[in-house]
Amino acid sequence: MSMTHYMELLMSNQPWNLLLFMAIPVILAEMIAITEFSVLLTRNMNGLVHHLSKAACLVAGIYFTGIIVYLVPQVVVPLTLQGAWRGPLDVLAVGAYLVGGVPLILLTLHEARLIDRHVPAPTKLARHVAYIAAFLILAHVAMVAGMLDPSLTKGSPPAVESSLVAAPSSPHGAHVGMEP
Fold first, then answer.
1. Rounded CA gap, 167 and 152, in Å?
2. Helices (DSSP H) in 100-180: which residue ranges?
3. Among residues 16, 48, 115, 168, which is most buried (max CB within 10 A)?
4. CB-based contacts of 92, cutoff 8 Å, min separation 6
5. Structural domain range at position 70
6. Tens digit of each residue's pLDDT, the chain (180 residues)
7. Structural domain total, the chain
C-alpha cells in the first residue's frame, strides 16, 4: 500500500518525527481543550489550570510556526515543483495539517493580546474556543486523510500489499495469521 507524505513524515526518523510533528502539537492542543473545560466550569480565571492553559496557548502557536517554517520550504515547495504529490488525499493530509497551525497561531496571538484586544469578553471566549476547535478538527482531518491509501482518489484501484497469509494447517484446521 502506498502512503501519503504526511504518514511518511511521521513514520520516518522514528520516534522523533512522530513526537515533533504530531505528539507535541496535539498534546498541547488537547491540554488546552481540557483545561478550557475546567476553566469554563469553575470560572476560576486565576488558578493553576488557567495559567497552564495560557502557557500551552502561548507555546502551541510558536511551536507550530516553527513546523510551518520548516515544512513548507523543505516539503511542500519541492513536492509541488516536482509534481510529486500522490493525489488529492496526499494534498489534503499535508494541507490540513499545515493549515491547522493557523488557528494555533491565532490562539497564541489572542493569548498574547496582540489580537482581539478590544472585543467583549464573551466574544474573546468564543474565539478562543473556535481556534482550538478548528485546530482539533483540521488535525483529525489530516490524520484520517494521511492514513488512507492516496491511490484511492487517483482513479486507480488501491495498491494491494497484504501481510495476511494463510498459515500452515494445524490439528484444529486452517487459519489466517499475520506474517512476521
1. 29
2. 101-111, 121-147
3. 115
4. 141, 142, 145
5. 5-178
6. 789 999 999 999 999 999 999 999 999 989 999 998 888 888 887 889 989 999 999 999 999 999 999 999 999 999 999 999 999 999 999 999 999 999 999 999 999 999 999 999 889 889 988 999 999 999 999 999 999 999 998 754 545 443 433 444 444 444 333 333
7. 1
pTM of the entire predicted model: 0.81
Q: Which three cell numbers stand for residue 115?
A: 489580537
**The three grid cell numbers given for residue 7, joined into one nine-digit string:** 504518514
Q: Which helix (H) or strand (E) holds 53?
A: helix 48-71
CA distance 111 to 55: 9
d(CA 90, CA 4): 5
